[in-house]
Amino acid sequence: AATAADRSVRAPLPVLGRDVTVPLVTGGEVAYAALDYAASAPALQRVWDDVAAYAPYYGSVHRGAGYLSQLSTDLFENARRTVAGFLDCRETDQVVFTRSTTDSLNLLARALPAGCRVFVFETEHHAALLPWRHAGVTCLDAPRTPGQAVETLERALAGREPHGPALVCVTGASNVTGELWPVRELAAAAHAHGARIVLDAAQLAPHHPVSVQDLDVDWVAFSGHKLYAPFGSGVLAGRADWLRAAEPYLAGGGASRRVARRADGGVDVEWHESAARHEAGSPNVIGAHAVASACRALTEAGFDTLVAREQHLIRKVRDGLAEVPEVRVLSLFGDDAPRVGVLSFVVEGWNSSHFAAALSAEYGIGVRDGLFCAHPLVRTLLGSDPRTRGECGAPGAAPGETSLDAVRVSFGAGTPDEHVERFVRAVR
Ligand code: PMP
């Protein structure tokens, strides 16, 4: 019998959308099982409540002397402090509100110092692989163990010519395999070779505590919509110096401290040195407030509890899939590698998009199929060259042929046991 402690570990956090029912091709209806958290997680009820509580009092940020404008400004700046606390930032770090992880990494790409070379593993999500191309990228081979990742990085950094500024961009948890990367060790390697490191925490932050100081990373990026706060905000947090020295990401009001018309008809501008430098225009105060609300909710629930519950769900999925001989779970670091609640697999004799469509139509389960915006990684994992059908998709295979892409199931703090149990039954 489950003890009270077991039950509390296993209680999912209340999220929206659990009351959605969908029709089945076999007849009748079923409660929708969202098992695509890695794409976008449902909003926490708590986040929704906090947004609803603020929405009637919405006002412009940093723009007015009126009461509601000041309230919004306080909310926005408090959200910044909450996020800094959630990420355990250094006193001198800046927290910039962006639209998403993609936006955050593109912002940092614009702030690279002259001559900076960027090092990324080929295993990265396209959002972490592509923004640096203008600067010069060294794309590293997919490692087969966490130790090999560190060795590969050290070798690449030690051999770089000339020995100028360098940035390493690495994921904390893969959006394809869910595997955890050795971030602390990679950060130590980067720093030992005079490089800086940015952590793509899009898949890590919703599942594990992320401490900038403990991991000793220079920047962290994550997305609100994967952290149960789908209101259009993301975060870039970390060292202020490169951000302060860079041209603003967007030019406009809010980023500028002083603007004047020159005698020759030109325009002079003095930019802010704070995070506002990269937040031109009226910021998304609701989005920032929602992210902060999610940070508070996850912290209060406790990551120990959330991790224990998620590991319990991962075991259920792993054990269930292991009983189906046609299923191959994808992994870089080996079957027992620690991971978050993200698993991709191929099913012998099945086209992944047909498989995902069947899970939806026959069982009311929403998963993802394709190449997950990580073409080189999926290519390495499948040992084949997927012909791309689009940015994030693949052509799939004819019925009866194994796909050149994969199915991904992902879950988190709002997932009840019943959803993963239904998924396992459906796959069987
Ligand atoms: N990095 C990783 C590891 C991701 O999983 C994603 C989203 N799939 C991104 C970056 C990009 O996030 P967003 O689409 O929110 O910008």
Automatic annotation (TrEMBL):
GO terms for molecular function: transaminase activity. SUPFAM superfamilies: PLP-dependent transferases. Its cofactor is pyridoxal 5'-phosphate. Coiled coil: none annotated. Keywords: Aminotransferase, Pyridoxal phosphate, Transferase. Transmembrane segments: none annotated. Residues 35-423 form the Aminotransferase class V domain. Pfam families: Aminotran_5. This is Aminotransferase class V-fold PLP-dependent enzyme.
